Amino acid sequence: MSPSSGTEISPKSKISSALRERGWKGKQITEALLWEPEGDRVRCNLCSRRCLIPEGQNGFCQTRVNIDGTFYALNHGGVSVLGIDPIEKKPFFHYHPGTASLSISTVGCTFRCKFCQNYDISQEAYGMREVDSAEVARQAKRNECRTISYTYNEPTVFFEYALDTAKEALKLGIENTFVTNGYMTPEAVEYAAPYIQAMTVGIKGSLNTEFYRRIMVVPNPEVIKDALLEMKRLGIHIEMTDLMVTKHGDSIEDAQTLARWVFENLGPDTPLHFTRFHPDWLLTDVTATPVETLERAHIAAREEGLRFVYIGNVPGHPLENTYCPGCAHLLVERHGFQITKWTISGGACPECGEEFPYRHSNGSGEPELRGNPLLFGLTIPDGGLACDLQASP
Ligand code: SF4
């Protein structure tokens, strides 16, 4: 009861108040998925923090709130960025190569990485525009995108919106990808699996526990392996990145340990991208990762038996390319996110016949190269919809 008026504050008013506090508008509320009551609190089982949240309080990610014992997601349909990227930017090199992916984000994150390049949407208040799930799917179709990627901020924190959108996309023949930090629970992976066909999992500092705790406020990164094993079990296409952070998370020994685990548990054909760190946000006292560090990590991962190891964020480097693991013939040449040469024939190496394991949709073994490259990289600078996209009728 309110001490001043004597009238009870309705759940609707509390929700409106929670939205106002964030500066968010619109119908962005939905009951959250994967939570349960626990005493007089609620337990969120979406990510491995498994927050236990008292009435009126937020989870760590700031996007979900307990109101009168029901757990709500506050960012359903609220879009911070909507643009079109090459699928190679996610990165996916073995999943619909050469296609366009409609890329969408909301706000919030389950991590607090000091070097986050998207901190304005992951950690700070940011404007959002309402775009319903069916409209996102229509935009993808009209702009010839083969996939929708839930990216830029962690998709676990907009799980409900992402899955509703993915369902609409699948009706139009469009697949869905998560670009995730991998901290989702195994039950969240299982829940998402019917709708999300591919996940690229962004590891940092080769999964070193001390690095995750000190730089990213993540207590137990080892659970990311449980999520990866669940993705593998459920047949989700997996690619992995390992951001090597200068001085803090750039151990070659750790990179080799990670590669060994990937080889033994996910298989030798799992693509692993060692990516270059650039100073940003709160971590600006170190330089970008020396290219030599990435090259040494590449050698270590190949020694462990991984067949497709790449270097990322170094445009023009020869290790952006795909080489046949059988005879070292150049299969795919890339520059940044663009494919500049494709020699694979019928899904195999033209020299030795070794099969190239990748998922594509046109059945020809050729890259699809669909979508308008002129639209790549559009964003919404002030919380507005990227209206340069082709409007739906
Ligand atoms: S998704 Fe958010 S509320 Fe749920 S456990 Fe993770 S940080 Fe906590």
Could you write a compact summary of the structure shown?
The strands form 5 sheets. Strands 8-9-11-12-13-14-15-16 form an 8-stranded mixed β-sheet. A 3-stranded antiparallel β-sheet has the order 1-6-5, with helices on one face. Strands 2-3-4 form a 3-stranded antiparallel β-sheet, with no helix packed on it. The protein has 2 domains: 23-73, no CATH class; 78-313 and 366-375, TIM Barrel, CATH 3.20.20. α3 packs across α4 and α8 packs parallel to α9.
Description:
- This protein has helices at residues 11-22, 119-122, 133-142, 159-171, 186-192, 209-216, 223-233, 252-265, 291-303; strands spanning 30-31, 35-38, 41-44, 52-53, 64-67, 70-73, 78-79, 81-86, 100-105, 129-130, 147-150, 175-180, 198-204, 237-244, 272-276, 309-312, 322-323, 330-335, 338-342.
- Residues 1-6 and 369-393 have low confidence and may be disordered.
- Helix 3 (133-142) packs across helix 4 (159-171) and helix 8 (252-265) runs parallel beside helix 9.
- By secondary structure, it is α/β, with parallel strands linked by helices.
- The radius of gyration is 21 Å and the shape is globular.
- It has 2 domains: 23-73, no CATH class; 78-313 and 366-375, TIM Barrel.
- An 8-stranded mixed beta sheet has the order 8-9-11-12-13-14-15-16. The chain has a 3-stranded antiparallel beta sheet with strand order 1-6-5, covered by helices on one side. The protein has a 3-stranded antiparallel beta sheet with strand order 2-3-4, with no helix packed on it.
- Residues 44, 46-47, 49-51, 59-61, 64, 110, 156-157 line the site of iron/sulfur cluster.
